[in-house]
Specification:
Strand content: 15-25%
Radius of gyration: 18 Å
Shape: globular
Largest sheet: 8 strands, mixed
Strand order of the largest sheet: 3-2-1-4-7-5-8-6
Order of helices and strands: EHEEHEHEEEHHEHHHH
Distance between the termini: 40 Å
Number of helices: 9
Amino acid sequence: MTDTLKVGAVVLTMGNRPDELRALLDSVAKQDGDPIEVVVVGNGSPLPELPDGVRTVELPENVGIPAGRNVGIEAFGPGGSEVDVLLFLDDDGLLPHTDTAELCRQAFAADPQLGIISFRIADPETGTTQRRHVPRLRASDPMRSSRVTTFLGGANAVRTKVFAQVGGLPDDFFYAHEETDLAWRALDAGWMIDYRSDMVLHHPATAPSRHAVYHRMVARNRVWLARRNLPIPLIPVYLGVWLLLTLARRPSKAALRAWLGGFREGWKTPCGARRPMKWRTVWRLTRLGRPPVI
């Protein structure tokens, strides 16, 4: 019975999009099946008025995306243990279909190895999905569902047993690559990740590079990701490939300066506990179409 899987939702907000947040919460409340309990985490900001029954946590400062989402997980008990599945949804997103939560229940119930589901993000005006929102190398067809090696942070569902086994998101990352860090640890523990094109989150199309901090965080966290998770021989290969890819994209001088600064920072600062993945996981990632060198 799929209705035995209890679903919760974590929404992180800076408090600056109250109308979009309310619309998202309304779309969660309209989901088919058992009601979904929701926690809204105010990341360094007071929360607007919210519907009755919504759990709330107001953090005194902005602790970053992964740490904020970890607070949301713990609002459902240690490792989210009060529920079987947690949805993670951007506060300016919206679930346009009422069957998304039920599809999640069915998917997790049918496949005990399935640990994470990545939703398809579509622009509400055009219906298009940006290439960067398809979490695989062969991203030209966003309507094709498949097994993947990472997932999208603000549009996903995670079985809470994954957190119990491998822990939460890496707090210190603050922003960028925290999903891949969790994905690699989950895959190394034997879980699988699916990209599902029929599970949709509406979200306005944006360019992450519009944020000044983007280039530094992406580079620093890329180094941390490798140092934490890869077998030693693969670390220089992985980072060398990304250095070449970054140069090939011909960023502006300011962007490249920020990226190189973040790259150096990633080597000079602590990256957290190192748990290199098994070589069989490297092969598993390769068979899934994305070897951990790119």
